[in-house]
């Protein structure tokens, strides 16, 4: 099932982990292990909580599956159209408006999908034709959509499976994870927005034409289809003090009821029946995919724990970094990038945080920042060659054959994906929106100005010296 759902790399890593557990005693040197009794090894993996039925599987069944079904219900109705209309009405008239619509719609849609690939396929179906029709270079249009869609897993309120796994691994409530992720996610999309501004000035990109703008009546009607479920979800979690999964179930009931109507507020039982079938199919596919990821990751983590390999890797990271946090962060970021090239984001995050997380915490990095840093860098493979999955999807949708050009644009627009985690480490107040809102806001403003300067320094058409000064000022503000 895992190979069919997520292809071969992660199942292959799980098989290699099993082989290491069985035959690692024959490996010479410090990375071997003394050997494990076969019954104890397999029993722990298959029966005890240290393997397949551990806390990762528990959170995927109890929480992740509920939110996946909730997202499928929203996606089957008019919520996607509501996101599109709101984004178009808000940004369509601005300079580079078609690209900015892509950013806003991807941010909104990503908040329920939590999947970069699904985000590209859904929002790209209307943003990419709009951009190419207005004369945007195909490579740039594809890059905008690829980058904007990569933010779905970091944008509250849903954020994909990784956020729920983070809840279980850190012991921090889901509302705390959402609050900590809010400002960093806004910074990411702000950086993309600023990059589009720079490209719009450089390439004279056009806004959307007036006939492509939805009427305000249409905007307000379609907003109902996502605003009501979102309000119920957040109100129940924040003020009702209900668990995330129970809050999602209540919001899901409202979303299911809204499936009865379309954007003209007409009722149709046959259309509702078709939408319910779509919910079942899409939710089933997503749940099976997440189950495959979680079960493979659980095997790997179980082997790391039983053999002591995780402790050995942690010691290696600490010694290789010279007991300094920034070199350790660099090594961790490289490991996340390399692992993320072959396995899904959630699996890359879980594996990396299991082996590198203890080292970073031992060097003084706070628990939540450690997890957010690793999770963000596990996302890099979505836009970074040679894998860059969203780049390939978006490039194919606009028939752009030079995918490296698309990736180059995507990396310059998505510089926030590389730098915001560094900003979280240097300006740690930014994640404390709940307990230190004033300090968090000040850190947000400082990082926003820094990332704006860096983005303009990378993309704008000004001469070399001003660009260098912008980059220097931006990096100084980011780190100091």
UniProtKB/TrEMBL annotation:
Transmembrane segments: 52-74, 182-200, 220-238, 244-262, 283-304, 324-341, 348-368, 374-394, 406-424, 444-465
Residues in the signal sequence: none
Keywords: Membrane, Transmembrane, Transmembrane helix
TRAP C4-dicarboxylate transport system permease DctM subunit domain ranges (all copies): 2-415
NCBIfam families, per database record: TRAP_fused
Identification of the protein by name: TRAP C4-dicarboxylate transport system permease DctM subunit domain-containing protein
Species annotation: marine metagenome
């Amino acid at each position: 099932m895992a190979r069919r759902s997520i292809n071969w790399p992660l199942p292959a890593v799980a098989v290699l982990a099993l082989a290491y557990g069985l035959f690692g005693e024959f490996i010479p040197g410090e990375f071997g292990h003394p050997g494990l009794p076969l019954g104890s090894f397999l029993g722990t993996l298959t029966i005890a909580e240290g393997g397949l039925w551990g806390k990762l599987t528990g959170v995927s069944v109890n929480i992740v599956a509920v939110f996946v079904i909730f997202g499928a219900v929203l996606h089957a109705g008019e919520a996607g159209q509501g996101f599109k209309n709101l984004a178009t009405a808000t940004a369509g008239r601005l300079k580079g408006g078609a690209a900015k619509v892509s950013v806003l719609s991807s941010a909104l849609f990503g908040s329920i999908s939590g999947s970069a690939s699904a985000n590209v396929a859904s929002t790209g179906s209307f943003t990419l034709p709009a951009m190419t029709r207005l004369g945007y270079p195909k490579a740039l249009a594809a890059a905008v959509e690829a980058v904007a869609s990569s933010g779905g897993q970091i944008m509250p309120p849903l954020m994909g499976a990784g956020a729920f796994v983070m809840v279980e691994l850190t012991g921090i409530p889901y509302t705390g994870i959402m609050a900590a992720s809010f400002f960093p996610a806004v910074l990411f999309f702000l950086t993309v927005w600023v990059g589009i501004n720079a490209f719009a000035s450089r390439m004279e990109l056009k806004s959307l034409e007036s006939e492509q703008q939805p009427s305000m009546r249409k905007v307000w009607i379609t907003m109902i289809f996502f605003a009501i479920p979102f309000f119920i979800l957040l109100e129940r979690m924040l003020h009702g003090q209900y668990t995330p999964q129970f809050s999602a179930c209540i919001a899901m009931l409202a979303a299911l009821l809204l499936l009865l109507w379309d954007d003209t507020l007409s009722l149709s039982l046959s259309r509702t029946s078709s939408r319910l079938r779509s919910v079942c199919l899409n939710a089933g596919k997503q749940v099976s995919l997440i189950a495959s990821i979680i079960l493979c990751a659980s095997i790997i983590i179980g082997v790391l724990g039983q053999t002591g390999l995780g402790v050995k890797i942690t010691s290696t990271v600490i010694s290789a970094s010279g007991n300094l946090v920034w070199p350790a962060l660099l090594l961790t970021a490289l490991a996340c990038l390399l692992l993320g090239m072959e396995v899904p984001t959630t699996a890359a995050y879980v594996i990396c945080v299991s082996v590198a997380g203890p080292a970073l915490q031992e060097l003084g990095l706070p628990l939540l920042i450690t997890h957010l840093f690793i999770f963000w860098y596990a996302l890099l493979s979505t836009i970074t060659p040679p894998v860059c999955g969203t780049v390939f999807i978006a490039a194919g949708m606009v028939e752009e054959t030079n995918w490296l050009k698309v990736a180059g644009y995507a990396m310059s627009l998505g510089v926030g994906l590389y730098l915001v985690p560094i900003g979280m480490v240097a300006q740690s107040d930014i994640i404390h929106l709940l307990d230190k809102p004033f300090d968090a806001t000040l850190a947000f403003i400082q990082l926003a100005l820094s990332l704006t300067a860096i983005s303009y320094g990378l993309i704008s058409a000004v001469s070399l010296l001003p660009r260098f000064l912008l980059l220097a000022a931006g990096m100084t503000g980011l780190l100091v």
